[in-house]
Design goal:
By secondary structure, the protein is mainly β. The chain contains 9 helices and 130 strands. The strands form 42 sheets. It has a 5-stranded mixed beta sheet, with no helix packed on it. A 5-stranded mixed beta sheet has the order 95-93-100-97-98, with no helix packed on it. A hairpin with a 4-residue loop joins strand 11 (176-181) and strand 12 (186-190). Helix 3 crosses helix 5 and helix 5 (1264-1281) packs parallel to helix 7.
């Protein structure tokens, strides 16, 4: 194996996008030469920057003129090298008149490696003129792999490895590893054992702090020499290979200050490797040209941006020479320096990157043939991609999220799909991130792999020669390098075969990666069907496709096909159909002759179904199951009806009637008339009566006017009628005159006539009974009273003659009763008065008088005025005077308080005592930073006592002197108590210095200060905008990255200093179900940078809203945060794009009054089974009952009470056993008032019934709320039974509508039906007891229930070609004659009032007799909506009446509001509206407490 020559730094540039000269331009220049013909490169194969090239490829170059073949060799002129396999030897052959040279390598290239072709100036044309040098590259293909990696294996390096590189240093054909060890001044060489494991390191001395290692054949002897950039010694070291993988001592060359990277490239086209080194502190890149023998000329410097940390090279402008680009960490740019064509470089052009770019790498990532740039941004947790515009300029960066502090970037096709994927070493973590290419130069979100601590460099190579990519990382924090081997794809085979009557795709032997799925499509020939699908020898379901999932072993699949057979159903009423041939089944393509024969009296009209038209006989070709109907028609007759003062209804009501039709005639008289008899073609008085149609008919109904009786009643008077008759015809007007007896007067009419008008007129429209009411005369009673009041029993405004009234005199406070005057006299109290006329009575009262007695000890009391007695209400001033040495304390006995003087109000006999006590004094001691002891220690001191005071200072303090009522510095000292005293002891404290210092990018406030002993001082550490505190050191010791620090209880001098680093922020992503946000999770972003997110719904869903920092930004597919300076959040929510269709029953008289059709199959003359008659909606209704309702019946509306008869309640419910029972209630439309179930309205009698039982639903109950409630539950039961499409009960109300205080928006239809049942049954508990409540119930029925029931409805279509229902087989129908299934009609979106949420599960709607009762327990529901802004509804159910509390708490458990505070609430369902307008966004909790029950749930407020 030949050793390699390496011309490009693969550590930074794995796919050099240098290119061939712009051939057309060069050829144009050549045409202008007349003396010397210069041969140039015209084309190359493989093409420049080609991907997925076979490793066994040859290299072919076409020149513009014949070449000097002797100038070609594989060592100095036509140099072909693999970045892993090294220099390739081979043979060169010529064709095309020596214009085409083809190089065939002796050994194939490695999989996945970059191959560099260096055509040097040593190549000459036939005229011995050198070509212009050209360097280009291509990449070989790799095996297809998952692009994932196994767990790391670590190898020990020197201290703090910061660079890693692989090449074959010992010529044994495998990749060895080199690391530059910054902390140990060495480079380590790890030789490959041949299997991807490595021998122990061998160290070689370098300069100080080596940061980068690179290897190539510097001296042209065929082996790889080492180059090392020494960051600490301003040199680059060259260690030449001894030819056996060991290295000679270093030779140093001077660079700029702090060299960070070294790599080599032939920048001047002379065939040897020149060195390029970026110098981070001198802001330059040094070029050291090779002298041709592995020694190097003095550096030439070129200016870059600030602090270049990395560099790379390639032909970015397609002019055939190598250009330079450098990543500038401090100026957040990458500099591009273009080659002038002679190894010198033009001034830099800068492009913006992320913050603090540390590594740059070049590769064609979008497959357009030019080199794009990738940069690791250490300060923004991102990588930037700058795509080449094709002319050596670059588009603006696109950022992708990496891990924390990305330090190194590299690209390699890790999964074998032909494009470059990105690897990033995240120095702030223990991970390497992999970002896979989408194939167009964009990248999916990162996947992280664990390596060692603080990875500083990442690299990729096939180290175990198994054809896939392995990843390596240099871990500066753990003094190791990690190897992560690539995971291969295991695979299995599937053998697919079929017979001649169909095909399977793909067929033959199919190879599939293990873990993947493989779909096979099965296609029968026309007229055939799949008979058998045999998988691994086992027969499976015969479907049009078969999928092997999660394949882990070999399989077989074999197909057998059979010819199709079909059935032909021919039906006829009033005739028959003959089939020829007459068979049960027909093979594909059979032709059948159909002949229609009518019964006597009928004629054939037309065919329908799978044959249409009038042709008879007709021919049908069998290519599917067929159904044909022959139609026949009868003769018809007319019916004429005559009626005066009434009308006649016909059932059925038709313009014409077929022979033999029976018509029910019902005579309906006008108001005030009655039916008499029939005449014409119907006679007699039977009503209704039946007429058989056997010809044209004329019928007359006769009616007569009604007569009525009038009864009058009167007590204490009489009534006269005018006219006065025994009976009256309908509409007669009668004058009524009421005359009162003596002592009475007329009051009003009652009975069938009301009012107070007399005389008045009555219209006779029914039998009537009228009563005239009369009343006695009444008198008034006048009461007079001063300083008191009088009660009357009875107390009335007027009194009837002879009434006796009891009078009671009640004096005011402080007064007493004396006597009566007027129509009552004397002193008796109470007294009685008889009312025989208007009366007046006066009650007299007099004021009370009292005595006052005063007592005093150790003092005296003065009264003002001083009297023997006092009238009620007199105010007496009391003045207490203490004896010498005493003081007044308080009043006691009949007067209390401490005011002196004070005033007493006389409202009874009083005894007053004045209390006195000896004087005492208080002593108040003040002492700060010390204490004072008292001897004796008392709360109070009597006059003249002496107190000794001793001052004791706190630690760090000393006593100074006394202040206030004691002075001087004597300690202890004595104080005499002759009044209240205040004494203050003063102390002084020690002070200490706090010295602070803030480094660049921040400040500390306050600055250096002096602080008292034992006190505390808080310092605020403030970073400049865009920075944060990185480290805080207290007294030289690191404490944390703080924004403030407090020195507590200071007892000595201290120091403090702080350092600062740039800010990073987080953007928290949340994706609702059925969609995603990319990137996802918590995304880190550096201060001032941008971040874009893509929002994607799952299949079948749409973006409902995107919420940024709590506010909706609409249904956008992407959102960019610009100039980020704070944490943010972004959430995407998705809604279902529904396509599921539902179907309902509605209130249709035609549907429910038709006769139920039982399904039945019958063989015709052709012996083919066919449905005897098409089903109708009642057939489907009976199917619901057959599947959902047991023989005992079920409750269709209301809450069944069973046998639990509570006399305090009156409950009713609808309990049905079969569909016909339900259909009876829909024989007429329901247009009356809406009432609860306990108030059925009898439309025929206009009466109200209170009921406690199960009620048969009948048409006489004209109640739309009951009708629509039953239909809603019927539709839920039909869906649950599968008679209509499933899931109807899970639909959610999507319109704001309130029913008796509860917003039903967000409820499923099952929940709505349960709530409606509760209201219809427990109406009193919901407060449904007034006409406006019934109107609300009616409005809800009209606006919500009825639209839900009707908008999904379509009529049953019995046309065989388009019918919207299905029937079962004859065997099933024989057992279940109602087994018809209705197909879907409309989606929730079509209808609009509801919405379909696929994750919503409504549960089962129970209608068992004893199940659907008042709530069986207390239930706290999840609030809706949730998340919410700012309002939401909280629902709960109570088992019984009880006290309830409902409170809201924040995440710290603090109560923020009370919605219900221990209030008594009724049993049943409740809903409370919560308005969070005054709260901030966040998580909150709501807690329900009812008796011993407590439950808490979480809700999210997003503003």
């Amino acid at each position: 194996m030949q050793t390699m020559i390496r011309l490009f730094n693969v550590h930074v540039l794995s796919q050099v996008s240098t290119t061939v000269k712009t051939w057309a331009v060069l050829l144009t220049l050549l045409t202008g030469l007349t003396s010397v013909a210069v041969a140039q490169v015209v084309s190359v194969v493989p093409a420049k920057n080609a991907l997925n090239v076979s490793p066994s490829t040859t290299v072919q170059v076409t020149f513009s003129a014949a070449m000097l073949t002797s100038s070609f060799n594989d060592t100095t002129s036509f140099i072909v090298s693999g970045v892993t396999s090294g220099r390739h030897r081979g043979t060169i052959v010529f064709s095309g008149g020596n214009t085409i040279a083809t190089f065939t390598p002796t050994v194939a290239f490695k999989q996945g490696e970059v191959v560099i072709v260096d055509l040097t100036s040593n190549l000459k044309n036939a005229s011995n003129v050198s070509i212009t040098p050209v360097v280009y590259s291509f990449r070989t293909s790799v095996s297809s792999t998952p692009g994932t990696f196994a767990a790391k294996v670590d190898y020990a390096t020197g201290s703090s490895p910061m660079s890693i590189y692989t090449c074959d240093v010992d010529g044994d054909g495998d990749a060895d590893v080199l690391t530059a060890n910054s902390g140990s001044t060495t480079v380590s060489v790890f030789k490959n054992n041949g299997n991807g494991t490595f021998a122990a390191k061998v160290d070689y001395t370098t300069g100080s702090s080596p940061r980068s290692v690179y290897a190539c054949d510097a001296d042209g002897d065929g082996d790889a020499d080492i180059m090392v950039a020494n960051n600490g010694s301003t040199t680059v070291s060259v260690l030449k290979n001894n030819g056996n993988g060991t290295f000679a001592a270093k030779v140093d060359y001077t660079t700029g200050s702090s060299p960070r990277i070294v790599y080599a490239s032939d920048i001047d086209g002379d065939g040897d490797a020149d060195m390029l080194i970026p110098n981070s502190t001198s802001n330059t890149i040094s070029v050291l040209k090779n002298n041709g023998n592995g020694t190097f000329a003095a550096k030439v410097d070129y200016t870059t941006g600030s602090s270049p940390r990395s560099a790379s090279a390639g032909d970015i402008d397609n002019d055939g020479d190598v250009d330079i680009f450098a990543a500038n960490s401090s100026s957040n740019t990458v500099s591009v320096l273009k080659n002038n064509g002679n190894g010198t470089f033009a001034a830099k052009v800068d492009y913006t990157t992320g913050t603090s770019p540390r590594s740059v790498y070049a590769s064609d990532i979008d497959g357009d043939g030019d080199a794009d740039m990738m940069i690791a941004n250490n300060g923004t947790t991102t990588v930037s991609v700058l795509k080449n515009n094709g002319d050596g300029t670059f588009a603006a960066k696109v950022d992708y999220t990496a891990g924390s502090n990305p330090m190194s970037i590299y690209a390699y096709d890790i999964d074998g799909d032909g494009d470059g994927d990105i690897m990033v070493a995240n120095n702030g973590t223990t991970t390497v991130s992999v970002l896979k290419n989408n194939g167009d130069g964009t990248f999916v979100a990162k996947v992280d792999y664990t390596v060692g601590s603080s990875p500083y460099a990442v690299y990729a190579s096939d180290i175990d020669s198994d054809g896939d990519v392995d990843m390596l990382a240099a871990n500066s924090g753990s003094t190791t390098f990690s190897v992560l081997k690539g995971d291969p794809f295991p695979s299995s085979t599937i053998t697919a075969t079929s017979d001649a009557n169909g095909s399977i795709t793909p067929s033959g032997t199919v190879t599939v990666n293990n873990g993947a799925n493989q779909v096979f499509t099965i296609t029968p020939n026309t007229g055939y069907h799949i008979d058998s699908v045999i998988v691994d020898g086992v027969k499976v379901e015969a479907t049009a496709s078969y999928t092997f999932t999660n394949i882990t072993s070999n399989h077989t699949i074999r197909l057998v096909f059979a010819i199709n057979t079909y059935t032909l159903s021919a039906s006829a009423v009033n005739g028959s159909v003959i089939k020829n041939p007459d068979q049960i089944n027909y093979n594909y393509g059979t032709q059948v002759i159909l002949t229609a024969t009518p019964n006597f009296g009928y004629n054939f009209t037309h065919w329908s179904g799978d044959v249409t038209g009038l042709k008879n006989p007709d021919t049908l070709t069998m290519d599917a199951n067929k159904s044909v109907t022959a139609s026949f028609a009868l003769n018809t007759y007319s019916l004429t009806i005559n009626a005066t003062n009434g009308s006649v209804t016909q059932n059925p009501a038709q313009a014409n009637y077929e022979q033999g039709t029976q018509v029910i005639l019902t005579a309906i008289p006008n108001t005030g008339y009655h039916f008499v008899d029939w005449s014409g073609d119907v006679t007699g008085a039977t009503n209704p009566d039946t007429l058989t149609m056997d010809g044209n008919k004329i019928v007359t109904a006769a009616f007569a006017i009604n007569t009525y009786t009038l009864t009058v009643n009167a007590v204490n008077g009489n009534v006269a009628k005018n006219p006065d008759q025994v009976s009256y015809e309908h509409g007669t007007q009668v004058e009524l005159v009421a005359t009162a007896n003596s002592e009475y007067h007329f009051v009003e009419w009652s009975g069938d006539f009301t009012g107070t008008t007399n005389p008045d007129t009555l219209t006779m429209d029914a039998n009537k009974s009228v009563t005239a009411s009369f009343a006695l005369n009444t008198y008034t009673l006048t009461i007079n009273a001063t300083n008191g009041s009088v009660t009357q029993n009875p107390a009335q405004a007027n009194y009837e003659y002879g009434t006796q009234v009891i009078l009671t005199a009640i004096p005011n406070t402080g007064y007493h009763f004396i006597d009566w005057s007027g129509d009552v006299t004397g002193t008796e109290n109470p007294d009685t008065l008889t009312m025989d006329g208007n009366k007046a009575v006066t009650a007299a009262f007099a004021i009370n008088t009292y005595t006052l007695t005063v007592n005093a000890v150790n003092g005296n009391v003065v009264k003002n005025p001083d009297q023997v007695s006092y009238e009620h209400g007199t105010q007496v001033e009391l003045i207490a005077t203490a004896n010498n040495g005493y003081h007044f304390v308080e009043w006691s006995n009949d007067f209390a308080g401490t005011a002196n003087p004070d005033t007493l109000t006389m409202d009874g006999n009083k005894t007053i005592t004045a209390n006195f006590a000896i004087n005492i004094y208080t002593l108040t001691i003040n002492a700060e930073n010390g204490s004072v002891t008292q001897n004796p220690v008392q709360a109070n001191y009597e006059h003249g006592m002496q107190v000794e005071l001793t001052a004791t200072p706190n630690t760090g303090y000393h006593f100074v002197d006394w202040k206030d009522d004691l002075s001087g510095a004597e300690n202890p000292d004595t104080l005499t108590m002759d009044g209240n005293k205040i004494v203050t002891a003063t102390f002084d404290i020690n002070t200490y210095a706090l010295t602070v210092d803030a480094l660049e990018n921040g400040s500390i406030t306050p600055g250096t200060i002096t602080i008292d002993y034992g006190s505390s001082q808080t310092f605020t550490i403030t970073a400049n905008p865009g920075y944060h505190t990185d480290s805080v050191f207290i007294d030289g010791v690191f404490v944390d990255s703080l924004v403030s620090y407090t020195f507590n209880n200071v007892t000595a001098n201290h120091t403090m200093y702080a350092t600062f680093a740039i800010n990073t922020y987080t953007i928290t992503t949340t994706a609702g179900t059925n969609g995603s946000i990319t990137p996802s999770g918590v995304v880190e972003v550096n201060y001032g940078t941008n971040q874009t997110f893509a929002i994607s719904p799952n299949s079948g869903y749409i973006i409902d809203s995107v919420v940024v920092d709590g506010a909706s930004v609409g249904s956008v597919t992407s959102y960019e945060f610009t100039a980020v300076t704070a944490n943010h959040s972004i959430a995407g929510y998705f809604s279902f794009n529904d396509t599921i269709k539902f179907r309902t029953f509605k209130e249709s008289v035609a549907d429910f009054t038709a006769k139920t059709i039982k399904l039945a199959y019958k063989k015709g003359k052709d012996k083919v089974l066919r449905i005897v008659a098409q089903p109708n909606m009642l057939t489907a209704l009976e199917n619901v009952f057959a599947k959902q309702v047991p023989k005992a019946g079920r409750t269709f509306l209301g809450v069944s009470q069973g046998t639990n008869k509570d006399s305090a309640k009156a409950y009713a419910w609808i309990d049905l056993k079969k569909g016909a029972d339900l259909a009876k209630g829909f024989k007429t439309a329901h247009t009356g008032q809406s009432y609860p179930l306990d108030y059925f309205r009898d439309a025929s009698k206009g009466t109200v019934k209170k009921l406690f039982k199960a009620i048969k639903f009948e048409s006489k109950y004209n109640n739309p709320a009951i009708a629509q409630g039953i239909l809603l539950k019927l539709n839920i039961f039909a869906s649950a039974a599968g008679v209509t499409p499933e899931g109807f009960g899970s639909l959610v109300i999507d319109t704001a509508s309130t029913l008796f205080g509860r917003n039903v928006q967000g409820l499923t239809l099952v929940q709505l039906a349960d709530y409606f049942d509760s209201i219809m049954t427990y109406w009193k508990r919901f407060g449904v007891d007034a006409i406006e409540d019934y109107q609300e119930l009616g409005n809800f029925t009209l606006l919500v229930l009825k639209p839900i029931n009707e908008r999904f409805y379509i009529a049953l279509d019995t046309a065989l070609a388009t019918r919207n229902y299905t029937t079962d087989s004859a065997a099933i129908v024989a057992k279940k004659p109602y087994s018809v299934i209705l197909k879907g009609a409309k989606t929730a979106t079509d209808v609009g009032i509801v919405k379909y949420i696929p994750t919503t599960k409504a549960g089962v709607l129970s209608f068992e007799a004893d199940n659907n009762t008042i709530p069986s327990g207390i239930l706290l529901e999840q609030n809706y909506p949730n998340p919410f802004n700012p309002q939401t509804a909280i629902g709960f159910s109570l088992l019984a009446v009880g006290n309830v509390s409902l409170k809201i708490y924040d995440v710290l458990g603090r109560e923020v509001t009370t919605l219900i505070n221990n209030e008594t609430m009724e049993e049943g369902m409740h809903e409370i509206q919560f308005d969070a307008s005054r709260l901030s966004s966040g998580v909150y909790y709501y807690r329900l407490q009812a008796g011993t029950f407590t439950e808490t749930k979480k809700m999210v407020l997003m503003k």
